[in-house]
Hints:
- Chain A is built from 20 helices and no strands.
- By secondary structure, chain A is an all-alpha fold.
- Chain A is elongated, with a radius of gyration of 30 Å.
- Chain A starts with a helix and ends in a 10-residue tail after the last helix.
- Chain B has helices spanning 2-41, 75-83, 103-110, 151-161, 180-190, 224-246, 262-267, 278-292, 315-335, 346-361, 363-380, 382-413, 420-431, 437-453, 469-474; strands at 62-68, 90-97, 113-116, 129-135, 141-146, 166-170, 175-176, 195-204, 209-211, 214-217, 257-261, 298-309.
- Chain B is of the alpha/beta class.
- Helix content of chain B is 52%, strand content 15%.
Amino acid sequence: MNDAIITVFWLIVVCIISFILLSLHLLWKKSQEEHRRTTIDHYKNKTESAWYDYFINDGELIESFIPKQREEIIGYEELANVYVTSLTATHTAEKLHYIATQYLHDYYKKLLNSSRRSNRLNALSRIEDYGNIEVLKECKWVQKEEKEKEECILLLSIYSKYDESTFKQLLFQYQSILTEFDCRILFNHLSFSVLTSFFAHFNEFESHLKYALIDTVSNKHTFEAIPYLLELVHDDDKEIRIRVAKAIYDLGIEEEAFCVELSESETWEERLMAAKLARYVKFSKSKPILFRLLEDMEWRVRVQAAQTIARHNEGRASLETYIMTATDNYAIEAAQEVLRKEGDWSWIG
Amino acid sequence: MDWIIDGIMLFFGKFIIVYSVIAIGIYVIMLFLAIRHLRKQYLMKKMVIDEEYLDSFQTKPVSILVPAFNEEIGIINSIHSLLSLRYPDKEIIVINDGSTDRTKEIVIDYFQMKPVEKVYRPHISTKRIINIYQSTIHPSLWLIDKENGGKADALNAGMNVSRFPYFCSVDGDSILEPTALQRVMKPILQSGGKVIAAGGNIRVANGTDISMGAIRKTIISNRPLVVMQIVEYLRAFLMGRIAFSRFNMMLIISGAFSVFSKEWAIKVGGYSVDTIGEDMEIIVKLHRLIREGKADKRIEFVAEPVCWTEVPQTVGMLRNQRRRWHQGLIESLWKHKSMTFNPKYGSLGFVSFPYFWVIECFGPVIELGGYIYVIVALLMGNTYSEFAILSILLFILYGSILSMMTLILEAWSMNRYPTLRELMHISSVALTELVWYRPLTLFWRCEGIIRFMIRRHDWGSMERVGISEKESRQQ
């Protein structure tokens, strides 16, 4: 028993000593951090206007202001972040790239080869900002097979902006570790032509890539993709059909036959899309479809149908007449909800 | 007779020591898992914070539900903090759960609200909704005025009225970081719908400088009761939840700030109105559905601090809260007792449930018994005093030392270097935990067990002082 007491006692002593040492370490780190912050801020104050002149006013590059020490590089990165996020002028991007390639190459190479994950991710983020992808070719770590998911995504993100052929190659390699969300972010960086070119490889993609591609062309209003989308309207995958219908709707294409077909579908999501697509079909033709969908068993379809009817010129009047004569309470409710415009308080009385 | 007393004392002495060693072992494992997890984020520069989560194309819209019962003091600050959230597509639904104070009138006046005839789908039955109001200055801000039915009922009503596929439950007295919703939605979005619920890291707001719903400066309260709760929150969130979340075994995410897939929440019948701990209950029900349906879904915890909440400042309020929490815990465990050691539920049945039964649920009884044993053993002397000393040392290790280590972990992982004064203040209070705070909370938690056994159901309420304001005045 005494041995146990002594062991636990010493364990507590060790823990308390560790706590004191760790606290001292934290306090030391704090003073170090404060000192580092002072150096960074000093560099930023000294060079801020010179960098502004260089990036915005085509001023001279002052050699003595080029960052050399780690703190100076951090200061430069913080200053440069404003130009990366706020300005899109080509010459600013070229200058950011020039500084990174000419003066910070070794720094980022060292960070990329670091064993610390956060260093590698920080370096990749800055490469994405400055476009100095040359450093990636010289880096041993990039050639390695084993990478974490976040690293793969950042690499893809860099290549999607600066090297589309490598991006295509890596996309196939990494597609199984990506989610639809990741793919949407990556595809959003791509030009219309590259995006459209992916339809040639559509069948080689996994489902989540297919969905992301359709959604992105729709979001980016890629009209070049319309022929490819129309080829997919009868795809076996229901999810693809629904997303294609949404894309056709977002791109504003009149597809009467597809609209009729969807309105007779057994799945409510497809009927919902039919109600949406009917917006672009002449009211005289879409009216019977829409009023049928207004009495649909799914409330979301009913509300959408009512919204689409209200958007047509004679739609509101038709809905008002419908409310007076119809017997389907659910449909009446949907029509009433749509007629009561949110934000318009005049109807309150 | 002596040999009977001797036998009992030895048995309890050994039992308490074995229990303490197991509990310390579990906490140390959790601490290491938390260090491993947080190390990944260490020293990451976040210059452009989650910009992709600000694009509505990438995100999913979220309905924010704020149940409010007599929250007239804090509700405006809370709504301001929600309005300033950086998230592209959101609606805020405040549910006035039959408040007897001026909560409803204050919200209506301040945000210029008007009644609307909103059509909603009653997915879950709730107490009657009297009226629905919409703000004329913030059209995405709604107020539901309903009959009193408790927090769970209010959340269910909010879920019925909400339009979006995800909903976020926020307490009426919580203040959120501007990026809170982005951060909590991140695992949901990144997983492509695999994560169906996510909870945020909650911090104590008492004493902080808040205006217009934003944290201006974090100040550590001078009140030992509040400081002890700061330590407790850090320990619970940083150690326990990170570890359990890693293996998809988390049974609790805080009701103060959590996001759920509406589809899944409706599938499990929404929040249970017949239990006190509705936030734990919905998580257990979701886990149950996931495992029974063999669905590839997860429930996750976000370690970054996202939400600030007011904790009780008086012993009376704290007692009430802890009794309620413990009663809620045991109710949920009891309701789903069939999951314990049931192979159908995998690690949840073999690790999570046993842990919650032994350490969280009956732990207070054993520990309180330990305190009584120590006193009796010291009085009896001889061999027993050795057991008593060993138990005391293990209690110190189990309580105070682990709390102090969590403080270091927090300071290191979040790159938030405390001042010497702050560190000394918090660690000295943490060191005294063993002699006042721990026995008190253990006693209240045991009261919770008794209340469960006698089926006593009163909801209790916390008198709000308005985060920071009252204390700032006093300081």
